[in-house]
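Researcher: Going back to the complex we discussed earlier. I've cleaned up the inputs and rechecked each line, so this should be the final set. Can you rerun the prediction on the complete assembly and write out the structure?
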Amino acid sequence: MTAASGAEHHLPAIAANELSKAFGGVQALRAASFNAHAGEVHAVVGENGAGKSTLIKILGGRLPPDSGTVLRDGQIVHLAGPAHANARSIGTVFQELTLLPWMTVAENLLVGREPRSALHLIRRGALAPAAEALLAGLDIHHIDPRALASEISLAERQIIEIARVVTRHPRVLLLDEPTSSLVEREVEWLFARIRELSAAGAAVVFTSHRWKEITSIADRITIFRNGREVGTFDKIDESEAITLMTGQQVETLYPPRPSVPAIAAPALELASARLTTTTSLELTLHAGEILGIGGLAGQGHRELFLGLFGAAPLHHATIKISGKSTRIASPADAIHAQLGIALVPEDRKTEGLLLPLPVRDNLTLPILSRLSRLGIIRGGVERRMSRAMITQLGIRTPGPMQPVGTLSGGNQQKVLVGRWLLAESRILLLYDVTRGIDIATKHEIYELMMRLAAEGKAILFYSSDTEELAHLCHRVLVLRDGHIAAELAPPELNAEAIVAAAMHDHHAE
Ligand SMILES: Nc1ncnc2c1ncn2[C@@H]1O[C@H](COP(=O)(O)OP(=O)(O)OP(=O)(O)O)[C@@H](O)[C@H]1O
Ligand SMILES: [Mg+2]
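Model: Rerun complete. Updated structure for the full complex:
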């Protein structure tokens, strides 16, 4: 831990004292306490639903506690909202992104501090240049401040969200899963910003489910379980931490890959697909294979996955499923049982889940027609299937009829994972499925992937977590500018090799 100087720093910059918070019947926090000092980077870890976001929301002024207090530099504060917290120099990046999609990047970035004329009118023409300068100061050059927030990628939105807070130089910076949609290079960018701020004396609190990141940047780690802290450590190893988080022992994080049959039939063949440039891409995915797609953000992964799912055009591409030419013009084509393609979307909020609807409906969405075709009373079967899935994946919900929007981030993601399992697809397009999922659940999902591959399902797998690609895939294709820059397989397959292949053209930067 960095030593603090000056008398005012002997007290924590931010502290929670016995905070409790309930949502209906769910006790999210149970007399939880926590503190972070000036100059410190403090990680909060725990299973999905442990209460991390609730803690951050209360510290960030977004939620009032039912009981307990928040202290800023030792003084009790009653935060009436994020703006009030800002005034106390507490800046928060919440887990769910808050950019307004219909506004430009510049408008979002500068909201509340727009350049103004003498008459106090917003100088619209000055917005973009001001934003550009702010972003350049953070070493961000690739995001157009004039673009609408809805037009940029999820990772870019996350970066703007972070930039919006960081450029206000808060004394307390709260980051709830800031890296979950970022790839390695962007994580390095964020960590450089965190180091700058903490070196300047800010207290930085962040949550993450990626252990490597946590140990690389945190001075202290607090573990949450069931709504309260179970310990704070300067150093703790991963398996010990998992035991504290879950009460269970997880032996190895990554299960062994099942072998692919020597004469596995091609399940999916894609040819002359143009993703981001005119160079075309070809790939073959076999039954029983887990084929990884890696590379930096914005290299065509998203276009590839959405294209195969029929949710975006794959210009001029030819697609064969089990050797037969197939047209995938819409998600309906893709979901159609015969095609068996499922996609876990990038942004579970806008593309995946219907938040006000129950967990049950979200799980069974793609198979509703099948359920009703069976001619059985839909409700009963549906409820049984969704209950089974809730148990299998350990989805934390009071019941299948709970609106999905009220579940914790990771539990929402599990509902998406459950959906493709229920749909029984033969080819699974998994796009960053473990994003935001806790370590113990990730482990279960990895095992599930292995089981599905061993059963002969073909899996196309994109992950922003390079370690995951290296450990789980039979082969990894590294994309660069919409084409395959490298194909890696064991023994050459490891995280460093994937990063090196992805960065090949970028050394000069
Ligand atoms: N608005 C809400 N309505 C109902 N329940 C809620 C609400 N917000 C949170 N909860 C519940 O409170 C508990 C704690 O949620 P929280 O979001 O703090 O967990 P978390 O540790 O951030 O999990 P994750 O790692 O999945 O993000 C969960 O059981 C969650 O379902
Ligand atoms: Mg959370």
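Model: Worth noting: The pocket of adenosine-5'-triphosphate (ligand 1) is lined by residues 23-24, 26, 28, 46, 48-54, 95, 396, 406-411, 438 (CB under 6 Å).
Researcher: Good, that matches what I expected from the previous run.
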